[in-house]
Amino acid sequence: MQPILKLTEVTKRYGSKSALSGVTFEVGPGKIIGLLGSNGSGKTTIMKLAAGLLQPSSGSIAACGEPIGKLTQTYTAFMPDKPLTESWMKVRDAVAFYRDFYPDFDEGKAREMLSFMQLNANDKTVSLSKGMNERLQLTLTLSRNAKLYLLDEPIGGVDPVAREKILDAIVQYYNEESSLIISTHLVRDIERIFDEVVMIKAGQVALHEGVDEIRMKYGKGVDDMFKEVYAQ
Q1: Contact present, 193 and 167 (Cβ < 8 Å)
Q2: Could you tell me which residues come within 8 angstroms of residue 172 by beta carbon, excluding any fewer than 6 positions away?
Q3: Which of 70-74, 84-88, 166-170 has the highest mean pLDDT?
Q4: Are strands 31-36 and 58-63 parallel, antiparallel or unpaired?
Q5: Closest alpha carbon to 115 in 85, 145, 143, 76
Q6: pLDDT of residue 188
Q7: pLDDT value at position 32?
Q8: DSSP sequence for the chain
Q9: Backbone dihedral region for residue 184 (phi beyond 0: left; psi -120 to 50: alpha; all else: beta)
Q10: Where does the pLDDT of residue 173 fall: very low under 50, low under 70, confident under 90, or very high at 90 and above?
Q11: Surface-to-core class of residue 35, CB atoms within 10 Å of its CB (0-12 exposed, 13-18 middle, 19+ buried)
């Protein structure tokens, strides 16, 4: 079965600084993947490379067998760590913007998710709390019928109640024929929804395993494994 995302010996440099060095891993369909690492480990760089917002210094990246580029961007839904909505928008304006901009946007799914997320279509986006704004950004992203979903720190800085709502929505609404990659350093709060994890340390893959395999092989959960990898 063809991987949804495949990185092969990917290196990314910014001048003399190396953000990624020889990163190789692939992600199959129907998986929720945790891209785990401390701040500055290279997670966001990987997400932006997969989204086609950056180009690798060397190596290759493909989505559904196609080199990352304009074609793959049409079926890749990226939720950055900062909102994409404009300050003048109400929630309904944000939905309309995504509907007009993305041919694969499912407005019916968006309305269903707004209700699930307890978001009011008439609320101004600038008046939303950080947690509610995260819910809106997730609604917009997951309402696309994409093959690859990329969520960069989707629960960073939100309260525990909002986190649970966001995680429940991810599980309930993502397209199971696609792959969904979540970058985070908040492992304990989110590990329950992962099928696999890729741990990035100093710009390299330190571990790529299925969550069940980690429990069977090492006798510990993802959070404990994460702490062990980063303590070395």
Answers
A1: yes
A2: 116
A3: 70-74
A4: unpaired
A5: 143
A6: 86
A7: 95
A8: ---SEEEEEEEEEETTEEEEEEEEEEE-TTEEEEEE--TTSSHHHHHHHHHTSS--SEEEEEETTEESSHHHHTTEEEE-SS--S-TT-BHHHHHHHHHHH-TTB-HHHHHHHHHHTT--TTSBGGGS-HHHHHHHHHHHHHTB--SEEEEESTTTT--HHHHHHHHHHHHHHS-TTSEEEEEES-HHHHGGG-SEEEEEETTEEEEEEEHHHHHHHHSS-HHHHHHHHHH-
A9: beta
A10: confident
A11: buried
Structure tokens at 172: 């309930």
**In the block, which residue shows the tokens 């290759």?**
60
The CATH fold assigned to 5-231 is: Rossmann fold (3.40.50)
Decide which of 38 and 10 is more confident.
Answer: 10
At 170, the amino acid letter reads: I
Structure tokens of 122? 């008439």
For residue 151, what are the β-bridge partners?
79, 182
What percentage of the chain has pLDDT greater than the value 70?
A: 100
The tens digit of pLDDT for each residue in 25-51 reads 999 999 999 999 988 889 999 999 999
- Tokens at residue 4, please? 């949804």
d(CA 135, CA 154): 9
Answer whether residue 103 shows pLDDT above 90.
yes
Distances (CA, A) of 114 to 37, 123, 180: 30, 12, 20
Domain boundaries, the chain: 5-231
* The two structure tokens encoding residue 11: 């290196």
